Fold:
Amino acid sequence: MQNPSHIQGVSFAALADEFGTPLYIYDGEKITNQVKTLQEAFSAVPLRIKYATKALSNISILKLIRKAGAGVDAVSIEEVKLGLMAGHPAEGIMYTPSGVGFEEIREAVDLGIMINLDSLPLMEEFGKVYGDSVPACIRINPHIMAGGNLKISTGHKESKFGISIEQLPLILEKVSKYNLQIVGLHIHTGSDILDAEVFLQGGNVLFEAAIQFSGLKFLDFGGGFKVAYKPNDIATDVMEVGKKVGEAFQEFCKRYGRQLELWIEPGKFLVSEAGYLLVKTNLVKESTTVTFVGVDTGLNHLIRPMMYDAYHGVYNLSNSEGKKGKYNIVGYICETDTIAAHRELNEVKAGDLLVIKNAGAYGYSMASNYNSRLRPAEILIWEGKAYQIRRRELFEDLIRNQEILDF
Structure:
């Protein structure tokens, strides 16, 4: 895994001078190339890519995703609206809610968005209101334990997501009761899935359910492709997944009697490796056992290390050569706020610029104002130029919506 000092000729150090730190930097070319990789991997089937917007929801990124030929997978009405603002047509957006109020469903339907029905109660209410007038998809929980972490495993028996495959008779009962127009079935088993066999296992569950629906247009296999985080890390072989899943899908279509579309919902795969969080070293603090590097960011800008025990590569942009030391890189938040522990870096001094890798997915989108800290700017590098696609927050932004009482 490379430790770049620039992207498309644009220097990270120059970006720090112009925009300050901390700073999210995204490589637009990497994002579009990842879309192309999936298109190539699944080239043997009619494919639709629905980008999992929750990974990185900046409108300019959504526009770039659209330019590359992918649609949108939204999990909130706000993400739906962001997709529309980015120019995605309503028919290119899938809305997969989880336990939302029915007013959100109404709003999405009024906007022309397809709903992915996530529960039996939602099917019931949807049926009462819309009957056969609005096409919909159904999310099935396949009872498959998969993914790199329990917190990101979504298809097991005790997961809140989807309708249990064991409740398929109840699903069919509600479809019949309200004459629901079901045009797609969906599963998503989790994130960081390496093995093509897991996707095939989910596919087999999907196929056996799908054969009982006569009006399908697509099957949605979800996402979960693993990307590399560490040196020599293993990533999902998407070419193998595309080949094996594509072959199984085409065999099912023969059995079904009609060619369907295959949908996938990558998020992290498209944007994780394209993103970097550029930070400044505030201090180097020696203790009796550990040397701490304190930086001008924390779990308020990248929560994954603390929330998921996630590994993120870190390197010293200001010192690419010379002796190495072992450091704990820690944030400025009043919590245990470790970004990376016991990492070997080229010697770090106060003022050095460090780069945190794989910050494209679930960096800014999970950022907060915890400790009343401000969120960073976002920069997109596209065709050799740097574009500020979100300005750095100001103190005025922090208090903008407060109504301050006069005591």
